[in-house]
Design brief:
EC 1.3.8.5; AcylCo_DH-like_C; alpha+beta; Isobutyryl-CoA dehydrogenase, mitochondrial; 399 residues; Butyryl-Coa Dehydrogenase, subunit A, domain 1; Butyryl-CoA Dehydrogenase, subunit A, domain 3; four-stranded mixed β-sheet; 50% helix; branched-chain amino acid catabolism; 3 domains; Butyryl-CoA Dehydrogenase, subunit A, domain 2
Length: 399
């Protein structure tokens, strides 16, 4: 069985900033409890089945949206919850203990809705955001291409303007939700080479010229489909462009700053659950006449895992607060949080599997799924190598 709950104070520590009033602290504890309960009751019992049968759990996500988790940091006037980035991190960590793959998709969906809410005009916000916040409709983020992953500014998908429409041609790769979702936030080239030639279009499912590749067969993240998204003379109204021409790359990167905190928070949830699973296993598994919990080497390993988890959480929460407050350090901190938390949390999950011995490699035990689902977090939303580039560039260009 998967693991969820808030059994230990140390494992649920989320370090609200000291300046926050006590009532805000209480609200965050309530959000956390609601998310933990939803993860335990609605996600955890189905996590293995969603993985093995590759089920996209639409109805469960719509239940989560009824709790306000479809547009967590989207403004309330279009159906969002209007919560902070710190609140969002707390919620995604808790949900991820129930199913990391499903929560990771929800985090991408939230990022897309926020992009429309933040950069869209009144008509666009009112058209798209309410159905996305309720998860009546689902969204996908389309940046990566077969030939441009880390080098996103070199994307080739083109949008040529003809009257009141753009004619979109090209393809996007590794798109979460691709083919099963309703709204595609697409980065495309409307101008010259480089980041300043990129614009952002919202493409609706059913648009002529929009098609999808085969469903990818993945190591993890199996509760969300991944496909190529293909545009062949796809006619998209100019009215569906977010912001002005040439603003697309800036919109994409601002979305990703939050996306990096979101995916780091999902990593925290997987690690959180894995520490608890490891602890429970050590308490019951006997070897050499004694439970593993009395083996000092394993005690120390468990202590290191818990310490890495809390250290990762504190960095992620600090980055979330910096982004919310629009601090100059926010971009670097988001990159640091994504780099550190996804690396450390993968190590935690992998160590938890090792503690299970041969049982950890069986699909009857949840720990292997956390390992498989969390591995891709070191790659997406900007690889961890790119995170190192961003951090070092900012350090080396500081006055």
């Amino acid at each position: 069985a998967a693991c969820c709950g808030s059994r230990y104070t140390i494992l649920t520590l989320y370090a609200p900033t000291l300046s926050k009033p006590k009532n805000k602290h209480h609200e965050q504890k309530e959000f956390q409890k609601v998310a933990f309960d939803f993860a335990a009751n609605e996600m955890s019992p189905h996590m293995a089945e969603w993985d093995q049968k590759e089920i996209f759990p639409v109805e469960t996500m719509r239940k989560a949206a009824q709790l306000g988790f479809g547009g967590i940091y989207v403004q309330p006037d279009v159906g969002g919850s209007g919560l902070s980035r710190l609140d969002t991190s707390i919620i995604f960590e808790a949900l991820s203990t129930g199913c990391t793959s499903t929560t990771a998709y929800m985090s991408i969906h939230n990022m897309c809705v926020w992009m429309i809410d933040t950069f869209g005009n009144k008509e666009q916000r009112e058209k798209f955001c309410p159905d996305l916040c309720s998860m009546e409709k689902f969204a996908s983020y389309c940046l990566t291409e077969p030939g441009s992953g880390s080098d996103a500014a070199s994307l080739l998908t083109s949008a040529q303007r003809k009257g009141d429409n753009y004619i979109l041609n090209g393809s996007k790769a590794f798109i979460s939700g691709g083919g099963d979702t309703d709204v595609y936030v697409v980065m495309c080239r409307t101008g010259s080479k480089g980041p300043k030639g990129i614009s952002c279009l919202v493409v609706e499912k059913g648009t002529p010229g929009l098609s999808f590749g085969k469903k990818e067969n993945k190591v993890g993240w199996n509760s969300q489909p991944t496909r190529a998204v293909i545009f062949e003379d796809c006619v998209v109204p100019v009215a569906n462009r977010l912001g002005e021409e040439g603003q697309g790359f800036n919109i994409a990167m601002k979305g990703l700053n939050g996306g990096r905190i979101n995916i780091a928070s999902c990593s925290l949830g997987a690690a959180h659950a894995s520490v608890q699973l490891a602890r429970d296993h050590l308490l019951v598994r006997k070897q050499f006449g004694d439970t593993l919990s009395n083996n000092q080497f394993l005690q120390f390993k468990l202590a290191e895992m818990a310490t890495k988890l809390v250290a990762s959480r504190l960095l992620v929460r600090e980055a979330a607060t910096a982004l919310q407050e629009n601090r100059p350090s926010a971009v670097s901190l988001c990159s640091m949080a994504k780099l550190f938390a996804t690396d450390e949390c993968f190590d935690i999950c992998n160590q938890a599997l090792q503690m299970h011995g041969g049982y950890g490699y069986l699909k009857d035990y949840a720990v292997q799924q956390y390992v498989r689902d969390i591995r891709v977090h070191q790659i997406l939303e900007g690889t961890n190598e790119v995170m190192r580039m961003i951090i070092s560039r900012n350090l080396l260009t500081e006055p």
